[in-house]
Design brief:
The protein is α/β, with parallel strands linked by helices and 301 residues long. Helix content is 33%, strand content 25%. A hairpin with a 5-residue loop joins strand 7 (93-100) and strand 8. It is globular.
């Protein structure tokens, strides 16, 4: 069985669906809420485990009730939690996601005591796949350098110097449009297709040995295969909540690559997975089955 390591932010997510956003100064009570695992690395790890990859998760969580809840979810998926470090001084990070039921847009409140890095990054096995989200850039760098032959995927969403430095360490980078524009210095104008080409070429010129995929939200994703720069469109669905789409895209992308797919198939599988994710509330609660993703891929490609 394939083995993976996911390193980065682990949090507890609380999803609230509202008919309208709360007004300033108002008092609001919520009874219909959903809670589950959160954080990009943790969510990707849950996906990989659900889709049949032996997955180890590593990060820092508090020794509190939400940390216990997170561990229970990992255990349900039979994930390897030996490398999670408990913090006795800081609580588990919480993300409150308020979803506007009318516009389908969400607002996220991340609640953390402070940033806490792993004290160590030791593993007793060699992974086939490494996924890092840039949250713990120091240990992400150590992990990528320790296993250079592993297929590695970096989530580049945080625009910071430490994450930018990781671009040379990972074999594949999935970055947001905002991150790509910041690093390349080129602003995308969807009315001018050459800006997409110029942006991608600028990234590749800076980082010759790294393969990039740029997520474009509802417009799909930008990638390159056989020296051709392409955009695969998003899946047309009845959108309920887009919060977990980015994480699920990255999970499907990484899963496809480590199972022998090329970057084109991986990008298309990612777009399909993200589209299916958008039809339900939550991230981990809404993970589509691998069979669903594959069926749509086979029907369309």
């Amino acid at each position: 069985m394939l083995k993976s390591i996911c390193l980065g932010r682990i949090s507890y997510d609380i999803n609230l669906v509202v008919e309208k956003m709360p007004e300033e100064g108002s008092i609001n009570e919520f009874f219909d809420k959903k809670g589950n695992v959160g954080g990009t690395a943790a969510t990707v790890g849950c996906c990989l485990a659900k889709w049949g990859i032996n997955t180890a998760i590593t990060g820092v969580i508090g020794n509190d009730v939400n940390g216990t809840r997170v561990r229970k979810e990992f255990d349900k998926l039979r994930m390897d939690t030996r490398y999670i470090e408990p913090s006795y001084d800081n609580d588990t990070s919480i993300s409150v996601i308020v979803i506007n039921g009318l516009t389908k847009k969400h607002t996220v409140y991340n609640l953390s005591d402070k940033y806490i890095s792993l004290k160590k990054c030791d593993f007793d096995f060699t992974p086939d796949l490494i996924f890092v989200d840039g949250y713990d850039s120091v240990q992400a760098k150590n992990l990528l350098e320790r296993f250079p032959s592993a297929l590695s995927v970096l989530d580049a969403s945080i625009i910071s110097s430490p994450v930018i430095e990781l671009l040379r360490k990972a074999k594949y980078v999935v970055c947001t449009q905002e991150f790509a524009e910041s690093v390349s210095g080129i602003k995308i104008d969807f009315q001018v297709p050459t800006t997409l080409v110029n942006l991608y070429q600028k990234l590749k010129k800076k980082y010759l040995n790294t393969e990039f995929v740029v997520t474009l939200g509802e417009r799909g994703a930008l990638y390159c295969i056989n020296n051709q720069i392409k955009v695969t469109p998003s899946l047309k669905v009845n959108v309920v909540d887009t919060y977990g789409c980015a994480q699920i895209f990255r999970a499907a992308f990484a899963h496809t690559l480590v199972n022998g797919g090329d970057v084109e198939k991986a990008t298309k599988m990612g777009v399909i997975a993200a589209g299916l994710e958008a039809t339900k509330v939550g991230a981990v609660d809404a993970i589509p089955s691998l069979e669903e993703i594959k069926n749509i891929y086979e029907q369309n490609y």
